[in-house]
Amino acid sequence: MELQESTRRRLPPEIFELPVEKMREGYYTDAYFNHTRATLVEDGRRPRVVMQVFQKRDAYLGGMDEAIAILKLCSEAWDELTVHALYDGDRIEPYESVMTIEGDYTSFAHLETLYLGVLSRRTLITTNVVRVLEAANRKPIIFMPARHDHHRVQTGDGYAAYVAGQVVGAPIGVTSDAQASWWGGKGVGTVPHALISAYGGNTVLAATKFAEWAPEDLNVTVLVDFENDSVSTALEVARALGPRLWGVRLDTSESLVDRSLWSELGDFKPTGVNEQLVRKVRDALDRDGFERIKIVASGGFTVEKIREFEQRGVPVDSYGIGSSLIRGSNDFTADVVLTDGRPSAKAGRRFRPNPRLELV
What we know:
Elements: H1 20-25, H2 31-43, E1 48-55, E2 59-60, H3 64-74, E3 82-85, E4 91-92, E5 99-104, H4 112-135, E6 141-143, H5 154-168, E7 172-174, H6 177-180, H7 193-198, H8 203-213, E8 220-223, H9 230-241, E9 245-250, H10 275-287, E10 294-298, H11 303-311, E11 318-321, E12 332-339, E13 342-343, E14 358-359
Parallel strand pairs: 6-7, 6-11, 8-9, 9-10, 10-11
Antiparallel strand pairs: 1-5, 1-12, 2-4, 3-5, 3-14, 12-13
Helix pairs in contact: 3-4, 4-5, 4-11, 8-9, 9-10
């Protein structure tokens, strides 16, 4: 799978709001690249090289538009470089070249740290989200890792998640406006525990006040685990909000057993959001005529847990996933493989032409 042809366009460099001057100065660059460039400049040597960029896993590419923007805005002579690249969302194989840069090495030597870092981070996010969406059978997910990482990564990570949604053809919700800004969306969210606490622990009152404030086009979704009695709370909220309620979110702590399961301990893991709890909430809502209300499940969900839920037909309509989407690694490497037209890669590496690359 990869992005549909209609979406294969590159974001304009200006959208990334790069700290161009600091990047040009080598402020964010590993010192050895700055030293390498300084040595070549001092010696008057300006080798024409082919730089080849790749990684070592089956993955879905992210961060390419951002990497290209770094080269366009921060190299010494962009017009004299020849860059070929794949697109964000392309499926990539181990050791496949995702980008080649040809030109005077001194004009872009100081940027290697930057474009490799961008590609590594965004490809990790895009690949993780694709895997989750595939496990969830293309059900919508809410991308919720903002609170688990530094705020400066939100914008690019949100776009990487959006790219994954485009690859799979499934809706992606993000929780901050920053995460949605590159593709023109907005952050979404449920009635949180903090608002319930602010109304003295009264979930129904908090949900009612939230619904009164919320714009008409906002899907009102309410956390129902505040009192650790998700079945009863879900029914109370559904009755109070009526058609204004879009969904309930189950988020029981991994260290708690929901009240509805206290008499059913036995042959299953009772803590957290589990199959039995979801089914109890679904059955209770359906019995009271609330079949249209969606169930969002969150709290400790991973690819494996989602896949198990889907295989067992657990009636979840959407998943909220947080820290697992930003964990792992997807490192990129860049090699000079040709210098002044002659092979110059280190032992074990070689020039790997890729007919899928397109001229930037």
